[in-house]
Design a protein that fits this description.
The chain is of the alpha+beta class. It is built from six helices and ten strands, in the order H-E-H-E-E-E-E-E-E-E-H-H-H-H-E-E. The longest helix is centred in the last third of the chain and has 20 residues. The chain binds a DNA duplex through loops.
DNA sequence: ACTATGCCCTGGGTGC
DNA sequence: TGCACCCAGGGCATAG
């Protein structure tokens, strides 16, 4: 599942291949049509051809390519998507949904087993991501901001962390990891956390994201970075998908429950309500 | 304004 | 071996 560290790793890998390049051809393959949100697949192919790529940014889990006509090509990988740079002569990945050829002969391949990924072509990037809060690694995502957001929600704190209005880029892996780092039970109502615990949670979010980013992202399910490689972060995960194993911190057995429809992993020994 | 639920999608795993 | 079923979950629509 690509979350902030995985999307940022992809962005860093792709940026040197893309900047200054002009798109020569775009092919959205049969079966991949649903990725096109703002245009029909054929229109989207036509509109992208001939555009020069001027920047590659990211906000939350969205990749944002700035085009020479001022518009933005916004890509979301959702559950199983990857965007990988390849030579044109390289073979297709099993779940390749689209092909983008550049003027130097390089290609971008959009792979997506479960077809949840999206492409928007918009005047302003925010048109593709309404209601998105501050990026979790930006200055705007501060402890006071988190305190204010959690204070007006009664849902479980882990569910609140998944709300992209609260912290753009945090997904299921890092929400669980942040609660563990902060020693907070993920079921605790968000508005019952005091300032000290919110401060710990804020630090936990940053630590979980930053440490994963240093290792180039996490390799669960179908994630591939911009070079087509799996990430390494799995070895550093404290609780995610470790149910039945013992806690790094206290030795208790890690549990898995369902919270807000999501699999949730935590240590019942050292994460407190 | 907030909360809960269902939908989209497909491969892998489980149980019979 | 085959088949039915459930699970994974990000973001959005909808209803309450």
């Amino acid at each position: 599942m690509p979350e902030l560290p995985e999307v940022e790793t992809t962005r860093r890998h792709l940026e040197p291949h893309l900047i200054g390049r002009t798109i020569r051809e775009v092919r959205i393959h049969p079966g991949g049509e649903r990725l096109a949100i703002t245009h029909s697949p054929r229109e989207l192919e036509r509109e992208l051809v001939g555009r020069r790529l001027e920047s590659l940014g990211r906000r939350g889990k969205y990749l944002i390519a700035g085009l020479d006509d001022g518009r933005c090509w916004v890509v979301h990988l959702r559950m199983s998507g990857s965007l990988v740079w390849r030579k044109a002569s390289d073979g297709a990945h099993a779940y390749e949904r689209a092909w983008v050829e550049l003027d130097d002969g390089g290609t971008l391949r959009f792979n997506d087993l479960r077809k949840f990924g999206t492409w928007h072509l918009v005047e302003d990037a925010v048109d593709a991501m309404p209601n998105l809060g501050p990026d979790a690694l930006s200055e705007e995502f501060s402890a006071p901001w988190l305190r204010a957001q959690l204070g007006r929600r009664s849902i479980a704190v882990k569910s609140a962390l998944l709300d992209q209005k609260v912290a753009a880029g945090v997904g299921n892996i890092y929400a669980d990891e942040a609660c563990f780092i902060a020693s907070i039970d993920p079921r605790t109502p968000a508005n019952r956390l005091g300032p000290r615990r919110v401060g710990r949670l804020h630090a936990g979010v940053l630590e979980a994201l930053t440490r994963s980013l240093e290792d180039g992202g996490t390799s669960f399910s179908n994630y591939l970075d911009g070079n087509g490689d799996e990430g390494l972060h799995r070895i550093h995960v404290h609780v995610f998908r470790r149910e039945g194993e013992s806690c790094d911190r206290c030795g208790s057995t890690i549990r898995k429950i369902r919270l807000g429809g999501r699999g949730t992993h935590f240590c019942p020994g050292c994460q407190r309500r």
